[in-house]
Amino acid sequence: MSSVRSKAKEQKQKHTISVLANHNLNALCRIVGIFSGRGFDIDSISFGTGERPGVARITLTTQGDEHIVEQITKQLHKVIDVIKVKDLTYDPYIERELAIIKVTTTPASRSEIMQITQVFRAKIIDLSQDNLSVEVTGNKDKIDAAIEMLRPFGIKEVARTGSVALKREFNGTI
Amino acid sequence: MSNTTQTQQAKKKHDIPSGKRSPAPAEGLSGSEILLRTLVDLDVDTIFGYPGGAVLPIYDTLYKNTDLNHILIRHEQAGTHAADGYARATGKPGVVLVTSGPGGTNTVTGIATAAMDSIPLVVFTGQVPTNLIGNDAFQEADIVGITRPITKHNYLVKDVNQLEHVIREAFHIAVNGRPGPVLIDLPKDMINAKGSYTGHKSVSIPSYNPVTQGHQAQITKAAELLSNAEKPLIYVGGGVMLGEAWEELTAMAERLNIPVTTTLMGLGCFPESKPQSLGMLGMHGTWTANMATTECDVLLAVGARFDDRVTGRLDGFSPYSRKIHIDIDPSCISKNVHVEVPIVGDVKQVLPQLDKATQKPNTDKWWATIRKWQKEHPLRISHKEGVIKPQEMIKAISKATNGNAIVATDVGQHQMWAAQHYTFNHPRSQITSGGLGTMGYGFPAAMGAAFGVKDRPVVAIVGDGGFQMTSCELATAVQYKLPLKIAIMNNGCLGMVRQWQELFFENRYSHSILSASNPDFVKLAESYGAVGLRATTPDEMHEVLQKAMDINDRPVVMDFVVEAEENCYPMVPTGAALYEMVEGDD
Lengths: 174, 586
Ligand SMILES: Cc1cc2nc3c(=O)[nH]c(=O)nc-3n(C[C@H](O)[C@H](O)[C@H](O)COP(=O)(O)OP(=O)(O)OC[C@H]3O[C@@H](n4cnc5c(N)ncnc54)[C@H](O)[C@@H]3O)c2cc1C
Ligand SMILES: Cc1ncc(C[n+]2csc(CCOP(=O)(O)OP(=O)(O)O)c2C)c(N)n1
Prior knowledge:
With 174 residues, chain A is α+β, with helices and mostly antiparallel strands. Chain A has 4 helices and 9 strands; from the N terminus they run βαββαββαββαββ. The longest helix of chain A has 14 residues.
């Protein structure tokens, strides 16, 4: 029966959507409004100037089955200021997020934290008597993992950029 | 004539005629002056508006302008509905001008109504001066923010030299692709600042290029399905009206002899007197239309959006058919119902292509089934001596106007009876709030239609409840001597609500009875200087209609006192499938 959707398509999955839009606030508000107004989820959103001046690249990550994500991309397309929408999920893509994690330190814990930092190829970018800030870059899972490893020491604050992503051109592994 | 030239000609409606209404380029003009010049150049002739502090400079410029017909409405919501009615009747975008703050917020219901039905509007709102925005200044409201979800696009003008271009873009966006309302917020300093008017007509928006041409491979697939169908059905929606493709549709359905059902928004796109017409489908659709939708093997949806009032319970909607869907908005395709052959494009272009590629299917057996349904399950009208039955009231109006009127309705039982019993044979003749279901819409929308179309009678069919939401517009209709006929289906209650309370809430008529506090509608009309007439029996009804049709210098309000407890059938209860419709007990 045609009005029933197939089971495979109902699987909820993470999607990374890349949007090019005119760089103005009305465009950003309209894009966010599609999610709030139509009951779609946003896990993260990042907004910044892309390769052309006046044009923003917005990277959105969201959850949903195929049908929902298809609606999301179609609705994004309808925003007059939106130039291009691409669901990167189905092709190889590169994705990065940056987080700054501020951890409480004691003289005893400091070196252990530094070791963890090295494992994640993260950088220490701020240091005081009882705090230390780590900058970590990677995909969402890596950042989640870094945060979890540092949590036992006492996390004071976390700031995350949300994912930025582009289609991958090189098909081997780097 | 080839199809392409035909479509090019049809597309011309949105182009701006050049000639004597093209104002000359000039510098050092005020924002108001630029605004009015651009409107004239865009072939706007009528604006619905209401003045206030933030737009007084525009009104001052209007005072000296003779190229634009400004209609002073009495409430901005009604004014927006009037512009919407004007747009639906003429095919041209409706234009609204209001002040900042409350002027803007009053347009919100009107804008949302237009957005849901894809009606092109351009709404101008005044705004506090740029340097005061964000200060909670007097009559400040963030109207761009408020209307973002209900407009196709909106603008805050920040540079007077961009004003002309913004207006041209706004009109372009309102009418092209899937039409819709666009709002332009004009800070007072932009209205007063000096800038230039260039007269440059071209608009190109790189990020906005709706697909109009159908994909050939998809059209071939669709044609194959249709040519081989045994039980095909065409399901026509408002997109055929918006895309002005009624001739293409009628030609195709007649040639292929395929039955046609229309949504509420598509009524009039296929003449209901033709043998292929099955009437409306959906919640209050005809038995035949709903059964044909259920039983068909190929369903061709043309500019229709599978609304829940049409489909009923989704898993029971047209379960045996393969579906073809022509729509200009990709987001409407497979949104509610999966379709096998989507065709993104403009109906006006796609239909002739599809028609050409399709061979006449053999539908004799299908027609026999359909004729049997029609015979066994016609729309029923119970008759009661000396009492006006609502359905008979609609039939009488249909007859008195020879089916040639533009009929605007409000929302409720009368709306559904009008859809069922008025014989719509012409496009742009049925004007109603379908998507938002806005009470208070019908009368002002009829008014707007009457401003746009002078050579056809315009009738507003309204309930006694909804009419009172915008009855202040009687003043406008009288001021401009509109020959409008307003037919109140007076059942003394919020009929549609009462019906649901009777059927689903065991007759508990909670806050739905109006009779004790209704005004005397005849006196109300007379107090405005309109004609008021009342009928309580079928004989009086015919007399009143006769009289009303002969009055052409002012509006006539007809108070038809009808059977109060009549229910509107057939009806598909919420949550039921189309084939589970109930036909009622009378
Ligand atoms: C009390 C009440 C009861 C109702 N009961 C019913 C009922 O029984 N039956 C019924 O049908 N409705 C009913 N409605 C109306 C219903 O709510 C919807 O408004 C209506 O069904 C939608 O009509 P549509 O599908 O034709 O879409 P519209 O809202 O008219 O949308 C038009 C579609 O065409 C597309 N389109 C626009 N321009 C073009 C173009 N140029 N080319 C191609 N596509 C284009 C658009 O993208 C859109 O998908 C009722 C409403 C009320 C208030
Ligand atoms: C602005 C608004 N408020 C409430 C409703 C809900 N509603 C739908 S139909 C209806 C009753 C309409 O009564 P009336 O105008 O008398 O028309 P009738 O149904 O009696 O023909 C109501 C209250 C609505 N559609 N619009």
